[in-house]
Structures
1.
Amino acid sequence: MPRHDLIIVGAGTGNALIDDRFDDLDIALVSAGPFGGTCLNAGCIPSKMLAATADVADSVRAAGRHDVDAELRGVRWRDVRSRVFDRLDAFAEEGEKGRRESGNTTVYRGEARFTGPRRLTVETDDGPVPIEADRFVIAVGGRPVVPPVVADSGLPYETSDTVMRLDEVPGRLVVLGGGYIAAELAHVFHSLGSRVTVIEQADLLLAQQQDELVSRTFTDAVRDQWDLRLGRELTEVSGEPGDLRLTLDDGAELTAETLLVAVGRQPNSDRLDVAAAGVGVDDDGRVTVDGQLRTTADGVWALGDISTRVPLKHVANREAEIVAHNLLHPDEPRTMGYDAVPSAVFTRPQIAQVGLTEQEARDQGMDYAVAVHRYADVAYGWALEETEGFCKVLADRRTGRLLGGHVLGPQAATLVQPLVIGLTTGMTARDLAEQPLWIHPALTEVVENALRGLDPGAADQE
Ligand SMILES: Cc1cc2nc3c(=O)[nH]c(=O)nc-3n(C[C@H](O)[C@H](O)[C@H](O)COP(=O)(O)OP(=O)(O)OC[C@H]3O[C@@H](n4cnc5c(N)ncnc54)[C@H](O)[C@@H]3O)c2cc1C
Ligand SMILES: NC(=O)c1ccc[n+]([C@@H]2O[C@H](COP(=O)([O-])OP(=O)(O)OC[C@H]3O[C@@H](n4cnc5c(N)ncnc54)[C@H](O)[C@@H]3O)[C@@H](O)[C@H]2O)c1
């Protein structure tokens, strides 16, 4: 049986772990799917490339607001799709080729399953290949959850793994779920021509993840564009491929050419049979790790969606840095921090956040100050003719420190970054507002003014 110094399972973020510091190790990299994993092939990157195209189409539609006469004559979907995926597929192939050609890494393509402690079998095209190593990194990510009402219907459905590669923009698209993936892909397909219905069990879109003001404003903003079925469950899927009938718990019947299921993702720990390796999992199937990202089995680390509480690519990337360091420097291990994890939703309006939501601050009984500043009240917001966007900030009244920041509107994912720095470094909201100079009349003034709008509270009265 081939024996390696280190086996990495998963060539998404797992592939990014290897650099020249590992040159003297014999490494095996095992992957069931294409190199680059979810983010490159079916996640962050294609969805954002499509969202950027959707934004262009929307800008043309909205040109009249700027007294520009423009007309959207059409979107060439197949050209869009080729532009996106020809580039990404080539990148994935180059990534695999580069790794195969590196002197010290053996690539095994196929689904792996542990067969014992530090031993697994890869189901390759040439049959099962058992391999073993002293040390392992598990980075096998997750997959879309498909509820039984859909899976058991026997009728076709799409997930984020497949929908971005469809041959046509669906005429009538029903999206099950109202979280990150649903919101971003509903935005894409609506802007590219689909009639979109969203079925979400909660009363607002993005309710699980976002500050209450953000999810309320976002839901109101898209209400006119998408048919929203909020607080609803899907009870039956019938009809035939291309002409689906969806029954809801209030008796309503919807028709759909395409059903996109986006109700969350589950970790791939079951498919890898991590239990056989003595690797423990949490209640939701995530591999259990400590602060140094060690699993419960000696010599086995985990990173990314398979184990993290926050399944985002920038989190997985940082975890990979920590695991790489800890593999190389076992006597000076580093610990992963999750105190100020930002995220963004690339919709229209765009959304970004870091730190606590107002409902979390309230539930934790914190003494907090809150301020909201609108894009419409800064000069560049006037330039954009922006009416709904805002920046909302929360700070601890006792210490003056920033607790959370939420931005809804153009460039939100970029505007949130000063707040991420403030939170990460533990700055007070006042210092963050007053120490740096903020460019006039840039959109960042909406963040500066939100910070300046915070009630100083006890911290400043001392
Ligand atoms: C539609 C969508 C949009 C997203 N957008 C964003 C975004 O904008 N920003 C953001 O931060 N995050 C985003 N995410 C989340 C992001 O994609 C994930 O957090 C990230 O890809 C996780 O990386 P990973 O390496 O842990 O797992 P993955 O990238 O999923 O990699 C797992 C790898 O393991 C392989 N594998 C699985 N099982 C086995 C097995 N048994 N044997 C061998 N190999 C196996 C897979 O083939 C794959 O190569 C998005 C996700 C989706 C689905
Ligand atoms: N821009 C980004 O950073 C980005 C984009 C896409 C995905 N992601 C990552 O991928 C993860 C998964 O995204 P997701 O959108 O699949 O999950 P999610 O957890 O964000 O949202 C799932 C939504 O589906 C709803 N839901 C669950 N079961 C339902 C049912 N049976 N009927 C109707 N609604 C139901 C939930 O209430 C929730 O609103 C995210 O948590 C995020 O970490 C990130």
Note: The mean pLDDT is 97.
2.
Amino acid sequence: MGPQGASSYSLLRLQDARMDPYSGQMSVLIIDDDEAICKALGNYFEDLGFIAYQADAGLEGLDVLLECRPDAVLVDLAMPGMGGLEFLARAREIAPETPMIVVSGTGHLEDAVEASRLGAVDYITKPILDMAVVENSVKRALEHSRLKRENKDYSERLEDLVLTRTEALRQRTQALEEANAHLTEEMTHRKKTEEALRASEARFRELADLLPQTVFEIDGPGKLVFINKHGLRTLGYAQEDIERDIQAIQMVSPEDRKRIGQIFSRLLKGEVISPNEYTALRKDGSQFPAMMYSSPVLHQGRIVGSRGVLFDLTDLKRTEKALRDSQARLSAIIEVFEGFIYTCTQDYRITFTNKKLQQHLGKDCVGELCYQALYGQDSPCERCAMDQAANGETVRQEFLGPLDGRWYYSVDTPVREAGDGASCKQSIVIDITDRKTAEEALRKSEAQLREENIRLRSSIKRSGRFGSIIGKSEAMEQVYETILKAAVSTASVIIYGESGTGKELAARTIHEMSQRAQGPFIPVHCGAIPPNLIESEFFGYKKGAFTGADQDKPGFLASADKGTLFLDEVGEIPPAMQVKLLRAIAGDGYTPLGGRETLYPDIRFVAATNRDLFDLMEQGALREDFFYRIHILPIHLPPLRQRREDIPLLVRHFMEKYAGDQPVPPMPPDFLKSLQKAYWRGNVRELESAVHRFTTLRETAPQSLADSSPGSGAPKGARPASPVRLPKLLGKEEPTLKEVAAAAEREYILQLLERYKWNRSRAAEILGVDRRTLFRKIKEYGL
Ligand SMILES: Nc1ncnc2c1ncn2[C@@H]1O[C@H](COP(=O)(O)OP(=O)(O)OP(=O)(O)O)[C@@H](O)[C@H]1O
């Protein structure tokens, strides 16, 4: 009997019976040699919706089991051939999971036990009185089998799950360990990097502190985090300000702060920012122009801030302004410049002409050939300085304009244009016709002057007089030459000569021949001024400057303004006064005693001395700087004994002078001879005195005659003074007592001076007065 198709089985019933939650028809194999039972059971289960397979023997049952794989098996025990127990044993091998239910008519307990041992899940005895018993048993068996299957599946799935999860866990643990190791390595690396970064930051800041520019660092949000020492100083902050609150330091003006913010955000995006100009701000609120260069600061590939340098542009701006100003001035000068200015290229093309030249030519001539447009030539001018200009030389020359016959002075300079060397020449041309004419006139007048000079010399030769100076000896002619030179110069003059040689006379002549002749000539006898008064005498004083200063008094410097100050006996000025005088001579001015204002007089200084100034310098009595300031134009007046040929002229001159309106008295025959032989230690002054005495007293024995032997130079012992001859000297019948005393004093001083060969120190000693007092008396009495 083959498997038979089952009648429809209610799925709903199956689901109600919770036998099979999944879709699909259940099947049951019924094995029984009793056909009726087999059929009844088959029909019954087919009615239930099962597919019912039927077999009438054990062996056939095994085949169906193998082929159809029923969900449950109902098997009889006692069957011909293979019995139920053997089937169970064999079936357990083929389909161990399929539930087997025994339906037997024997009812032996041993069979039931054996069937159970062989895997039967239930044991139903025949006759089957209620098919529902079989149905329930099958359903239970199917449920059990399902549960078992499910359990097995679940166990298997669980195992798989555990295995999968365990593997996943292992992998995750391994990944975590690896990640941990990586992280640790990363952290170490980062730590090292950060340490290196900190060290390099510190080095950067140390270096930045050495730079002479403002170096700063700003973080991402735009806040100052570092500024070097120079920056602090430039912005007027102190180290404490940084320590207190570095972010309070504002480097730029409030208006520029916004701009900076925008620039930093661009910088943070990695943009390259070109340098910008800002108005930098100092702590005290003052501002200055500055240029800022910024570059991004990278940390691990990320821009975290910026670093920059701030340059103070004050000097640059000032220079730029000065340059602009000077350019403007230059343009203004070019605009009003009275000469011609033009530039041209190396192929003689005009590139620029100034207004003056344009007016002169009636057009600008730019682009035209210079030699044609300016000089009316067919080829470059012979004097053209183009080649020299190309070599970087400046050429100055005078030339006669070929078109107008006027004289010009030109300065040709190379014009260097950026990059291409001496690409063209600039010429400045000035009309010098007037100067040339004046020069010509000057040359003519010089020639006339020379002629005049010659005439003057020959007139000196004839008359033996140069201004008020008498003498025509060669030595004196040389003196006149130097006086003339001194008269046309403004340099300081120093006159050397023994006492009485005419130093003051020479100084006065210089003054009278100079351009200052209309100004005052102030002689100062420095040796006669008491040291304590010297400053007030020279500088003058203001009312109230000291006790007794009851009104302003101008000093010698004020009196000599626009004239000549003659410093006689210059070596007698004390060194302290020399310093002050030096300043005044050098143009630094002076201040009167008790005054506030510095005065700058316009004075020509002429000094004189009968002493050796080098000796005085060595002794420390004369400052070197003072000496070199006054010793510029020296004049040496020769002593009278070295120009005896001038004596007759001088005698004649003085005799006329002292005779006044009276006729010149006749001179005894030997008198002139004796005068020419005398030593004349007191020089012209002494000679003048002798002639004076002769004219008034008819005295013919000058003291110097005593030393007339040639080579004699020193007094030969003192002799008693002659009685004083007063009444005649006074020229007055009844002089006052004061006049008599003064005349006696004058006469006695003169006698002493003559006796001691004008040795004033000796005379002062005998007179019991100091040298200054004696100097004063000599001047006072005109000795
Ligand atoms: N060459 C001269 N011709 C005419 N007079 C002269 C000449 N030299 C000197 N004298 C007269 O001699 C006198 C003295 O001259 P002066 O005072 O110029 O001499 P000094 O060298 O300045 O003397 P000291 O050094 O003593 O001041 C004056 O009266 C002056 O007129």
Note: The chain has 28 helices and 24 strands.
3.
Amino acid sequence: MANRYFTVSWDQLHRDARALAWRLLDKGPFQGVVAITRGGLIPAAIIARELDCRVIETVSVVTYDEESMGKPQVVKAPVAAGDGTGWLLIDDLVDTGTTAKIVRALLPGAHFATIYAKPAAKPLVDSFVTEVSQDTWILFPWDTEVQFVPPIAKGGVTPA
Ligand SMILES: O=P(O)(O)OC[C@H]1O[C@H](OP(=O)(O)OP(=O)(O)O)[C@H](O)[C@@H]1O
Ligand SMILES: Nc1nc2[nH]cnc2c(=O)[nH]1
Ligand SMILES: [Mg+2]
């Protein structure tokens, strides 16, 4: 269970995705990008743009309902990427590695990259940008909105 949050803004996400693209430059060229939906879609779009890659495939694994984990299900398998050789596989993050293990089994030849990684699943990723602790829940900009917080003196709490 997460006991702290790491809030990522659109700006931060864009910067971190571009930092990942820099790391991937000499790992390619790639014939296409496979995005692990849904969280990998926006990172994959940014990285595909930076690497000048026009072909995007998707794979969808349903693992979580909000913050709790259920039985993982592949609801859309990749069609165009063969065993993944020559393809770049992108997700927003790895946490327990459950999603990563399932997708790697489908695409063993792909280069697997995420923007964020937690320690338990770090060994499953070929390239990533930022490590966060296992007890941190990452809040993406598509999961959040900006809202009013009362002043500290009046009971406002700033998340760590
Ligand atoms: O390493 P794991 O413990 O498997 O967790 C990582 C996965 O969890 C999140 O996806 P989620 O299942 O919430 O679906 P979504 O991308 O559709 O939001 C995230 O986008 C990763 O794909
Ligand atoms: N948004 C989000 N989804 C996740 N799925 C597994 N771990 C996480 C996390 O830290 N943040
Ligand atoms: Mg996901």
Note: The chain is about 20% helix and 30% strand.
4.
Amino acid sequence: MQKIDVFSLFVAMTLNLSIMAVALPYFMGRVNRAARYAQTGIVLQTAGWIFLFSSSAVERGGWADHLLSTLAMGCVSSGMVFNAMAFQIWCGRKVSVRTPIAIAVLMTVGYSIGFSNYPFRVGWANALLALQIATVVVELCRPPKVAVGRWRWLLAICLSIQMIVLACRAVLGAFYTAEFPNFFGPYLVNQIFALSSNSMMVLSVVAILLAHRDEAARELERLAMQDSLTGALNRRAWLLQSGIELASSVRYRQPIGLLLLDLDYFKQINDTHGHAVGDRALQLFVSGLQAVSRAGDVFCRYGGEEFCVLLKCATPDAVMAYDQRMRQWLAQHSIQELGFELSYSAGIAMREHDSDSIDTMLQRADVALYDAKSQGRGCTLASPVRLSA
Ligand SMILES: Nc1nc2c(ncn2[C@@H]2O[C@H](COP(=O)(O)OP(=O)(O)OP(=O)(O)O)[C@@H](O)[C@H]2O)c(=O)[nH]1
């Protein structure tokens, strides 16, 4: 252990961090907010270490040492804030980093004020950095809001190790100053710190790349399931989910209904008001479906200006009630938001036999919809009976 050269280990780590700080943005290309935060975190950590090295090259305790060391503390702690923001987004949470920011400010200001007192500044900086990391570890251990991979535990372990070593350095620096007079000296805790910092840095970057890959996979899945204009499920995703719901309705002997809705004279809307207004009408229609849907109702943009809703545990009356709520919602909102009345025709199909599939129900709903169009539009039919107007 005596042969381990702390200074060289930290130089190697800073060099690797610097390469990463430059290479990651270049190789990751255009990335979203979380990855940008993580990259910024790495850049700040790198800057922190460079300042720390620079401070060891100037007169010890002088103004340059004071300035460079304070900048180092500010960069390292704010780097952790950016990392914390990235981790929160990757865990599907809202960004909330008031505590890590408060600790970063408190640590940097306290460090600068107490700079001339070595035991104080070492104890203070290391203890608060350990505390800041603890808040990030706690966040990582909370159940995430989206499905995330094992990178979360990898990061939690890496950060916990860093936190323990920092806490040890805080105690040694503050209370055993004579045996621990500087950062790069050949002391056991420095050697452990240098070794763990090196390996944890490599593992943390691996975890960050894994988190980024996870997020990209989630985004691809979302794009594959969602209609990009309206945010509603697309036909493929709806068919998948509807198949499952239909099977479950057979298994538990529950009624299930399907409503196929088609906007009236939509070509005319596009021709008269322009394509952008047509797009807004589609988005408004989906807002309406969202507003009137209840738990268990699954809707999608089936294609063009056609939408489909599957209503679980719904009798024909419940499907009609849904249709009425939607017509009321449109009557209240369309003129106000679009400047004209938006109406639709619809067809209803209930599951009649255990052997019914979504396809057969869609065919029946389509026949009813065709009849509704033929009868003048703006109404809902469940073939062969006209149910509403
Ligand atoms: N703005 C916009 N228009 C779309 C989109 N998708 C399909 N359309 C248009 O929707 C129109 C559908 O026209 P039709 O099938 O004749 O339907 P319609 O005019 O509503 O006629 P009826 O259904 O019989 O009342 C076409 O002009 C399509 O170009 C879209 O994403 N945005």
Note: The radius of gyration is 31 Å.
